[in-house]
Every structure is written in structure tokens, then in C-alpha cells.
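Researcher: We're teaching a course module on how sequence relates to structure. For the next exercise, students receive a sequence and then see the predicted structure as C-alpha cells, so they can try to spot secondary structure elements on their own. Here is the exercise chain.
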Amino acid sequence: MKITFILISFLYSSFLFSQAGNIGINTPLPKARLDISAKSTINPENSAGMLFPTVTKFPTVDPGTDQNGMLVYLDSALTPNLGASGLYFWDHSNNRWQFIYQTKVLTNNLFKVVYSASPAFSSIQQPNVWYKTSFNSIDTPDPNFKINTNGDIVIGSTGTYSIIFTGGIKTEASSTFGVRAEIGIFKNTDTSPTFSTQVVLTVPDNLYRSTNTIITGVISLIKGDIITIKTRQTNFVGSNPTVPATNYSLILSNLN
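Model: And here is the predicted structure for the students to work with:
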């Protein structure tokens, strides 16, 4: 009875046609297996379209071969660290959800992933000890790039990447001596950074001294690699620990 009611309601609001195995909605001459037309192309109703299933996150278990090409709409308002809102299809040959985008989009770099951390780390209390940054925000149309539960960056696709880091540090209090620090970009479980920069905060002439840092480079990564950012103070800390001056940001751009 419920199915009959839905079918009657559908037929009442639209016209259904069938011709040579093709089905047409609001068109007597369907030109494909399913051909849907608006009731009026000049003055279309506000429901003249198709709604695909909406999800706020992708299934925990990946779809299989039978679902290759399956479409869903991701509404990332409740899960902003998952990916950009939009239509995705399941690409079984590459075992991933692929974002559907227009090639005419000029305002977004669709091969760029932006990670940010606020705050970048707690205050440094010991010299020559690396303090890890926990990232808490990601901006990308590719849901394969993630932030894990430790706040680390998870690479979503194998390739060669341009990497750009920006971030600032400062002394927490006025001091009569300067500060030497280092910021490093680490890959997986490496104990030494792949890229790093030395930072010198000279003796402040007016309470605090701060600086912003940029690290750039090119790196080859594979899907599943972990990237972390760490900061350490290389001279005596004492009563003048190093603290974040700005948020930390990391931009990855796929060069392939």
C-alpha cells in the first residue's frame, strides 16, 4: 500500500513515458535509458533537479566492485576535517572516493591540501626536546588526506609534493638573553627532520621578541605517510620559554 501511494503521488506530479526501453520523465521522447526533463526550462520549479544520497561521512568499510561509480553528496558541515562538500563517486580501481569538480573552477587549487594548528604547541620547558604540533584543521577537496587522532598529517595520495610551512614563535617573557630555536618537518618515524630552519630571537629591547618562519621544499610521499611538525629550543630555557606567536600552517601541493 505504501509503495502504491508513492507511485501514484509520483505519477500525479510528473509524467512518465517509456519508449524502446528508454524511460522519460516529463518528456515523451527519452533519448537515454533515463531522460529527465524539467516541466519548464524557461521557468523551472524550485524542485527541478535530482537529489543524490547525502552523507556526513564516508562508510567505515569501503564499497566494492559492484559499487564502482556510485554517487553520494558529502555534506561536510558537521565533519569539516573530512573533505570539501560536494559530489563524490567511488573509484574502485584506485580504491578511493573521488571529488567531482568543474575544470572551470579558478578560485580553488584542487591539488592543494592546507593544514593548520591552533595553538601550535604548548610552551617549551626543556632545551633540545622536540615539542610536536597537533594539527586540528584541514582544507581540501580530497577526503583521502586526513588528520589522525594524534594530530598528525596523513598523506592521501602517492606523489611528489611542494611543501610550504609558515609559523611564528616568540619568547614568553622579557629576558636579558636571546633564544635559539629550531622548527622541523618530520616524515614517519624519522628522528631527524627532512626540512628544518634555525630561528634566533635576539635579546629583546622591548619586552618580547617574535619571528615568523617559512620552510619550503619538494618531497616524495606515498599514501599513508605521516608528516609531523616539531619545535625545540636549543639553548638554555630558564624563565624564558619559547611559545607560539602565530598558528602553524602547512600547505601540500601535488606536482604530478
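Model: If you want an answer key for the exercise: The chain has one helix and 19 strands. Residues 19 and 142 are 40 Å apart (CA to CA).
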